[in-house]
Design brief:
single chain; 354 residues; mainly beta; five-stranded antiparallel sheet; 1 helix
Length: 354
């Protein structure tokens, strides 16, 4: 193995608690239908939709960010310019309003597993800020500005976050777990590591990555190194259960991106393919197959959607996107692969054949 593999997880804790509507979500789940997704499209857009009944489908004319699968068999997303939230029913081709509240300085969001709570990132001239919002309670809580990365637990009842240190505590950074609103905080790690991105793949195990390594961290603070890339280009994509993970990096010896597969529990790993980043892949619920986007030609925007087996490495081309593809995920029934185009920032779906 070229890579040393170890196990470590680190988690971040939330410092928040006051109701916050200036930067918070503050909107309701309205579910107000606004019509079919064909409304408002140009003739060229409509022809693309109608000619792609079994292929690529343009889902909305809105620029989308932080899209995810919806429990109602559709797609939830934020409108990039306004922070409003919409849902698209792929089968019925209808779009409805989830929240009509305009969010000033909205950048992106992390969805809880139940898709009813979010942790959103907002721009601030003094440093970006995170805010937790509960759609059912219709309340928002601001996180302390020193919190830089936050994630939900697998059951959505807790959060973990990374908090940068101050001069008073010797400059030590910290990882906490807490209730999503910031109450009942528990520090689980002091660290001098920086630029940490948090994950919570397993109920008993958190994880975080630096630019070149992945660590696993228990709720009791036990830390171990899980993966070393020896390159500051590391990307990570966990499976739904957290038992498997994709890792990619640019090999410094040849400049080629390598995509690796690794089991969380017993540590087996292997090189799957090259030329594909883990961030351009989506796990199937069977946690054997992955769907990945790969440039059709070097330097080309056009991408091939490939089905790759992590069991035997077999590859099958499922379709082509002329508008590129990023932030891939599968619909709840796994009948469509949904992604955002880097060209026009709109959402598209590709029909997945059985």
């Amino acid at each position: 193995m070229r890579l040393k593999v170890y196990l470590i997880t680190i988690l971040i804790s939330v410092v928040a608690g006051t109701s916050w509507y200036l930067m918070g979500e503050g909107g309701d789940f309205e579910e107000r239908q606004t019509g079919t997704i064909l409304d408002g499209f140009t003739d060229n857009d409509k022809s693309r939709i109608k000619s792609a009944e079994s292929g690529l489908i343009l889902l909305s004319q809105r620029k989308a960010i932080s899209a995810t699968d919806s429990p109602e068999k559709g797609v939830l997303f934020y409108e990039k310019e306004t922070g409003k939230v919409f849902q698209v029913d792929i089968a019925n081709k209808t779009e409805s309003v989830v929240s009509s509240k305009v969010l000033e300085n909205f950048l992106s969001t992390v969805w809880a597993p139940n898709k009813r709570d979010v942790i959103s990132l907002f721009y601030s001239p003094n440093g970006n800020r995170l805010s937790y919002y509960d759609y059912d309670a219709k309340k928002a809580w601001a996180y302390d500005q020193s919190i830089k990365s936050a994630v939900f637990s697998p059951d959505g009842n807790s959060v973990a976050y990374f908090k940068t240190g101050s001069e008073e505590d010797g400059g030590l950074n910290k990882i906490f777990i807490a209730q999503p609103n910031g109450s009942y905080t528990k520090k689980i790690l002091d660290t001098r590591l920086t630029d940490i991105e948090m994950f919570w793949p397993l109920d008993s195990q958190l994880s975080f990555k630096t630019k070149s390594s992945v660590f696993m961290l228990s709720k009791d603070g036990a830390l171990s190194k899980f993966f070393d890339a020896y390159s500051e280009t590391l990307n990570v994509m966990w499976s739904q259960s957290g038992k498997k993970v994709l890792l990619s990096y640019i090999n410094p010896n040849n400049g080629i991106t390598e995509l690796w597969f690794k089991n969380t529990d017993f540590g087996g790993e292997g090189l799957l393919t090259t030329g594909i980043s883990a961030s351009d892949c989506a796990w199937s619920i069977d946690e054997v197959n992955i769907f990945c986007a790969a440039n059709k030609f070097p330097g080309s925007l056009e991408t091939e959607i490939r089905l790759i087996s992590t069991d035997n490495g077999s590859v099958k081309t499922m379709g082509v996107s002329a508008v590129g593809s990023k932030n891939l995920f599968l619909s709840s029934l796994e009948d469509f692969l949904v992604f955002t185009s880097p060209l026009d920032e709109r959402l598209y779906a590709l029909k997945i054949s059985n």
